[in-house]
Design a protein that fits this description.
By secondary structure, this protein is α/β, with parallel strands linked by helices. The protein has 9 helices and 7 strands; from the N terminus they run H-H-E-H-E-H-E-E-H-E-H-H-E-H-H-E. It is globular.
C-alpha cells in the first residue's frame, strides 16, 4: 500500500461509502460462522487498524494487527490500536497454532508472485485446530481500475483460485461468495470504457468522500447486499470475493466435523 493511499484511508474510512458498506457485508457474512468462544485474532495486513478494531468490537476478540507498511502501524496506534506491528503476511511472527481467528482483507492482490500461496500457508500455520480464517480479495481482472494501479494491485482473483490455495493449505472452506455485486455493471462501464476513453491517470478512488446524499445512496446499495447475505444468499459475480475457512481439528474425520 502506498503512503499516499494510507493517508487517504486514514482520513476517509470511517465515513466513505465503500468502507462502511463493506464492513456491513463482512459482518453479515461472518456472523453465522463466528462462535463466541474465540479469544485471540489477527488482522494480517491491517492497514490503519480500523477493520481489526471493528472485528474486535463485534466479536469480543483480542485482536492483533500487522502490516508491512510502518506508516499503517503508525496510524493504527494513533487510533489507539496498540497491539499492532510492522511485519509481513508471508512470515507471521506468531507461534504455530496460537490464534483462534485470522482475517486478511484485500492483501493477496498486492503480494509478489507466489506470495499469495505462501501467505495462506502461514495463515493455516498460526491458526489453532478449529480456528477460522476470513479472507477477502479483489475479484475479476476485467474490474481492474486506475485505482487498482494507484494502490499497486498486482492481480485480481476468481473464487476457485483462492479456494484451491486454501484447500492446499489443509483448511476447509465453509462459505464463500462474491460481493459488491449490484454496482458491478456501473464499475465495469467506468473501468473498461470511461477511464480508457478519458485517459484517466492512476488515482485513488477513496481520497475524497462524495457529497452526503451520494455517499448515503451508494452505502445503502452495499447494505442491501449485506441484508441478503445475512439471509444466506450467495452472489455469482462481484468486485470482491470472500470466504470463511476452518482449520480442521486434530481428530478431524472427513464428513464428520461440524462448525
Amino acid at each position: 500500500m502506498t503512503p499516499e493511499e494510507l493517508h487517504n484511508i486514514f482520513r476517509t474510512e470511517q465515513e466513505f461509502w465503500w468502507y462502511d458498506g463493506m464492513r456491513a457485508i463482512t459482518k453479515a457474512f461472518l456472523d453465522p460462522a463466528m462462535p463466541r468462544d474465540l479469544l485471540l485474532g489477527l488482522d494480517a495486513g491491517c492497514g490503519t487498524g480500523f477493520n481489526a478494531q471493528s472485528l474486535q468490537s463485534a466479536y469480543g476478540l483480542r485482536m492483533f494487527g500487522l502490516d508491512l507498511a510502518p506508516l499503517g502501524i503508525q496510524y493504527a496506534r494513533k487510533r489507539g490500536f496498540l497491539r499492532s506491528l510492522a511485519a509481513s503476511t508471508m512470515e507471521l511472527p506468531f507461534p504455530s497454532g496460537s490464534l483462534d481467528f485470522l482475517s486478511s482483507i484485500d492483501v493477496l492482490p498486492v503480494l509478489p508472485e507466489g506470495g499469495d500461496q505462501k501467505a495462506i500457508q502461514e495463515f493455516a500455520r498460526v491458526l489453532r485446530p478449529g480456528g477460522l480464517l476470513y479472507l477477502r480479495s479483489a475479484a475479476f481482472h476485467a474490474l481492474r481500475s486506475r485505482h487498482s494501479q494507484f494502490v499497486a494491485e498486482r492481480r485480481r482473483y476468481r473464487g476457485p483460485e483462492i479456494l484451491r490455495m486454501i484447500e492446499a493449505s489443509g483448511m476447509r472452506p465453509l462459505r464463500s461468495t462474491y460481493a459488491n455485486t449490484f454496482l458491478s455493471p456501473v464499475a465495469l462501464l467506468k473501468f473498461r470504457v470511461w477511464e480508457p476513453l478519458t485517459q484517466a491517470p492512476p488515482q485513488s478512488g477513496v481520497g475524497v468522500i462524495p457529497p452526503a446524499w451520494i455517499n448515503r445512496a451508494l452505502a445503502a446499495v452495499l447494505h442491501s447486499e449485506a441484508a441478503l447475505l445475512r439471509r444466506g444468499w450467495r452472489f455469482p459475480f462481484g468486485q470482491s470475493w470472500m470466504v470463511v475457512a476452518k482449520k480442521p481439528a486434530a481428530n478431524f474425520v472427513a464428513g464428520n466435523e461440524k462448525l
